[in-house]
């Protein structure tokens, strides 16, 4: 019993170390997902002086084709183009539009951009058609503490770079607060940009896509759990432990880096092969 308890604690320690090192290694990538060095240093309307994150994606569409999807942002409008099912579990009542909504194509400076029906602290702060669209949240004194701005930059006649910039006031949103927001914000914004790309390119998406994402994530989680159980249960558990650590790192990658769907499948199959191999090796031992 003492041996198993020791192995459990040892395994937890190794997994925790893998999580910390994995997040630190991936952090520069997920905070500036898809953004070039030029994107990151470019000044954008609404920039605040504190923490700043820049993400970007190339869309096969012109700024004029992308613009209508941006200006209908918000709960009760065109949605947030992210994980509706997850946001609605939290009670946000968000429904991403499948098409362009004419009634929301002419927002005005100061118009509310809501997270939910009861949380509506942001308002449109910049709007230059086909170039800039953004909003800011302010504190009780009217000072901006969070800014979110989209920028549209033509690549050629048929492709546009969509850049999303978030910035924070260093006093109203200190480093401790923005650090706590990093991971959930990364997950939602990466999905947002991916959905905007699909919508602007005429691809409406499918529920199968969401199911695939969830299944891939759960498959990696289950493989990791099996690796952990084998590590504790068997005397020579180094190989299952390696599979468990690989599963943890892959979970981080799936969550924070948003790899292409085909690559997710390849990585999950490789991890499953590693589990089968470690199972046979430990069984022989």
Provide the β-strand percentage band.
Answer: 15-25%
Through-space gap between termini: 21 Å
Q: The biggest beta sheet, please?
A: 6 strands, antiparallel
CATH classification class of the largest domain: Alpha Beta
Strand order of the largest sheet: 1-6-5-4-3-2
Helix share of residues? Answer: 40-55%
Order of helices and strands: HHEHHEEEEEHHHH
CATH architecture of the largest domain: 2-Layer Sandwich
Which structural traits does this protein have?
single chain; 285 residues; alpha+beta; Alpha-D-Glucose-1,6-Bisphosphate, Chain A, domain 4; 2 domains; six-stranded antiparallel beta sheet; 51% helix; 15% strand; elongated
Would you kindly provide a brief summary of this structure?
With about 280 residues, the chain is α+β, with helices and mostly antiparallel strands.
Can you walk me through this structure?
- With 285 residues, the protein is an alpha+beta fold.
- The protein folds into two domains: 2-27 and 208-284, no CATH class; 31-205, START domain (Alpha-D-Glucose-1,6-Bisphosphate, Chain A, domain 4, 2-Layer Sandwich), CATH 3.30.530.20.
- Helices cover 51% and strands 15% of the residues.
- Strands 1-6-5-4-3-2 form a six-stranded antiparallel β-sheet, with helices on one face.
């Amino acid at each position: 019993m003492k041996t198993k308890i020791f192995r459990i604690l040892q395994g937890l320690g190794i997994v925790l170390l893998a999580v910390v090192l994995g997040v630190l290694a991936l952090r520069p990538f997920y905070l500036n997902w898809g953004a070039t060095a030029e994107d990151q240093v470019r000044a954008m309307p609404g920039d605040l002086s504190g923490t700043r994150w820049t993400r970007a994606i190339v869309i096969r569409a012109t700024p004029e084709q992308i613009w209508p999807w941006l200006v209908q942002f918000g709960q009760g409008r065109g949605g947030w183009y992210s994980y509706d099912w997850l946001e609605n579990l939290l009670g946000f009542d968000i429904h991403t539009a499948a098409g362009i909504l004419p009634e929301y194509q002419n927002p005005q400076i100061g118009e509310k951009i809501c997270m939910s029906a009861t949380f509506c602290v942001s308002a449109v702060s910049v709007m230059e058609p086909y170039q800039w669209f953004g909003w800011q949240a302010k504190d009780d004194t009217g000072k901006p503490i969070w800014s979110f701005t989209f920028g549209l930059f033509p690549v050629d006649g048929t492709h546009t770079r969509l850049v999303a910039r978030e910035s924070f006031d260093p006093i109203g949103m200190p480093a401790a607060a923005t650090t706590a927001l990093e991971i959930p914000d990364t997950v939602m914004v990466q999905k947002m940009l991916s959905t905007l790309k699909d919508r602007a390119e005429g691809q409406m998406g499918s529920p199968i896509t969401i199911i695939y994402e969830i299944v891939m994530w759960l498959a990696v989680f289950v493989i990791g759990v099996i690796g952990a159980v084998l590590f504790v249960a068997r005397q020579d558990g180094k190989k299952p432990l390696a599979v468990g650590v690989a599963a943890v790192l892959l979970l981080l990658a799936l969550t924070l880096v948003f790899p292409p769907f085909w690559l997710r499948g390849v990585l999950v199959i490789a991890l499953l092969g590693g589990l089968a191999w470690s199972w046979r090796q430990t069984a022989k031992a």
